[in-house]
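Q: How would the structure tokens look for this protein?
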Amino acid sequence: QVQLVESGGGLVQAGGSLSLSCAATGFTFSFLSMSWHRQAPGKGRERVAVISRQGARTKYRESGKGRFTVSRDNDKSTVYLQMHSLAPDDTAVYYCRAVRLDARAFWGQGTQVTGAA
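A: Here is the predicted structure in token form.
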């Protein structure tokens, strides 16, 4: 089993920045592919960013390119999402997701991010 705990959400003014963290336990972190997802009220969950096991490769949703940066520290078993130029449209519950080598996926409980107008 992989346990994931997100932190760092909150209320931020338009144009502001926020940094999320997701700490993983229960599995060798460097064997996990990690990603961030979000779900806005009344909408489906969408992937925001993904990072490979060693952090060499990243991919972003188009709306996050240039504003969001995903990174990981395998020694700390933690993945991060730095967000800049936040807008009301970024308001959502943000989740981290881990995928093991056997393709089994695990989710964190989510952290609320609210971009004020």
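The radius of gyration is 13 Å.

The mean pLDDT is 96.

Upvote if useful.
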